[in-house]
Amino acid sequence: MCGRFSLYSSYSTLSQGLKLPLEVAVKLTPRYNVAPGTWITAVRHPTDNEPLVMDEVWWGYRPHWAKEKAPEPINATVEKVATSNYFRGAFAHHRCLVPADGWYEWLPLNGKKQPHFLCREDREPIWLAAIWTERPDGKPGCAILTEPARGVAKEIHPRMPLALDAESLKPWLDPHLTDRETIRQVVHHLDAELITHWPVSTRVNRPTNDEASLIEPLKP
User: Which residues cross the membrane (predicted)?
Assistant: First the structure.
C-alpha cells in the first residue's frame, strides 16, 4: 500500500539522484503529506519520442477508454500490473517515476492505528515505480506500484511501494523497452536494508496538515 508520502527535496537533489537529462515543467514546493486525488510530481516521457520531463500527474489511474464508473486506483500491484487488462498497456508503454523522500504506513496498535514514516537511512530521495495513462479529461493520471513488504517495512504493513535502485531508473523510463521479461531482468528494487522507519504524530491522518513537523519522530 502507498497512500501518503512526502516530497521536500530540491530539484538539484533530485537531478543528482536521477542522473538523466530532463526538462522541468513543474515548480517544486515542499510537501510533507501528499495524498491521493491531488497533482503529484512525476518523471516521464509524454510520448515515445519526446524528451524526459518532470511534470505533474494526477494521483489516480483511470484510462480514457474506461467507463465512467470504472475504478480509479492509486496503486497497482507488481503481481498483476503486467497482465491486467486495466494496467498492462501502461506497464509496457507508459512507465514513470514518482520521487519521494519517504512514505507513511499505519500500524495497528491497541485498537488504534499509529502512523510511521519510512525512508532511506541516508535520507536520500526514493524513486517509486509508477505507471501513467491519459485520463478521460485528456490529462495524465498515475498509479504507484506496490510489492510485498521487505526488511523493516514488514514490521508496519504487508505491502510497500516499489522503490527502484539507481541502476534501474533509466531502463524503467525507457518507452522503447516494452517486453515484460526484459523489464524484469533489468529493473530491481531498492535494497531493503537501506530503509528505516519511526512513529510520527497522528496529525498526518488529516491531509490538510502539511508541514515538516509531520515527519519528526514521535516523542515518548
Answer: none
* Strands (DSSP E) found in the chain: 5-7, 23-24, 31-34, 39-44, 53-59, 75-77, 95-100, 102-109, 112-120, 126-134, 140-148, 159-161, 195-199
**pLDDT per residue as tens digits for the range 48-63:** 889 999 999 999 999 9
Under-50 pLDDT residues of the chain: none
Considering the candidates 50, 56, 72, 105, report the single residue annotated as catalytic.
105
The structural domains of the chain, ordered by start, are 5-215 (3.90.1680.10)
Q: Which one-letter DSSP state was computed for residue 86?
A: T
Q: How far apart (Å, rounded) are the C-alpha atoms in residues 119 and 186?
A: 24
CA dihedral 7, 132, 17, 190 (to 10 degrees): 90
- pLDDT of res. 1: 67
d(CA 148, CA 2): 12
Dihedral (CA of 152, 156, 158, 163) sign:
negative
Clarify whether 2 is annotated catalytic. yes
Catalytic residue among 2, 96, 119, 142: 2
Are 58 and 67 contacting, i.e. CB atoms less than 8 angstroms apart?
A: no
* 124 assigned to active site: no
pTM, rounded to two decimals: 0.97
Q: Tens digit of pLDDT for each residue in 180-214?
A: 999 999 999 999 999 999 999 999 999 999 999 99
What are the cell numbers at 85?
487488462
